[in-house]
Amino acid sequence: MSWLPVLLACGAAALLASGQVRAQVPGNVRSAGPAAAGTAKAATDTAATAGAATSPALAGATGKKRYFVADISWANNTYYTPSEAKGAAEFELDVASKTLRWVLTYQDLSSPPTKITLHAPAQPGATGAAILDLSPGGPKSPARGEGKLSDAQVEYLLTGWSYALVTTRKYPQGEARGQLDRVRQATPAFQ
User: Looking at the chain, which residues constitute the CATH 2.60.40.200 domain(s)?
Assistant: First the structure.
């Protein structure tokens, strides 16, 4: 018996739509059967469209700034990268305008950097898609800039599902990574 129809029958669809619960759909939805796969897609689509407007993470945050830090290290990577790479990043999010500003530094890379990107959604130890180029003028340290995010990308930041990644010639899948952690006070770069 598939778990998804049971959850939906118990009112999980309403919780997903309200943004209070996140869909945890298994990687192989086909194992739940064709009908459940369609139901899973409908439930996650509903959550994605309704969550942007009613998300608890975004509720009450309008007009406020949020701050994040990341410890950039080879040790945070999901791939084996024997490197001494390290660095730090500070981020400021203006929730009202969905503008993200950053300052990111790195050192001791094993080869020249090729790009610096922000990835989401991804919990620590998981990989996510690149959602923002943190080095549009070319990778350098310190990397500074700002960019616009979507509602979903803002939510990923606020829930801790984003990371910064420095890729190099030697490690094109990433040499150093840092999960963004929210902090309560403005970081030194944004005071």
Answer: 65-190
Contacts of 118 (CB under 8 A, 6+ apart): 100, 130, 131, 132, 134, 162, 163, 164, 165
Select from 90, 20, 89, 99 the least CA-distant residue to 63.
99
Q: Which of 8, 59, 62 is nearest to 36 (CA)?
A: 8
pTM: 0.69
> Which pLDDT belongs to residue 41?
36
The CATH H-level superfamily of 65-190 is: Superoxide dismutase, copper/zinc binding domain (2.60.40.200)
CA-based nearest residue to 114, from 131, 128, 135, 84: 135
Q: How far, in Å, CA of 72 to CA of 80, rounded?
A: 15
Segment 78-110, tens digit of pLDDT: 888 899 999 999 999 999 999 999 999 999 999
- Spell out the residues 6+ positions from residue 1 whose beta carbon is closer than 8 angstroms to its own: none
Rounded to the nearest 5°, which phi and psi values hold at 189?
-65, -20
H or E element in which residue 54 lies: helix 34-54
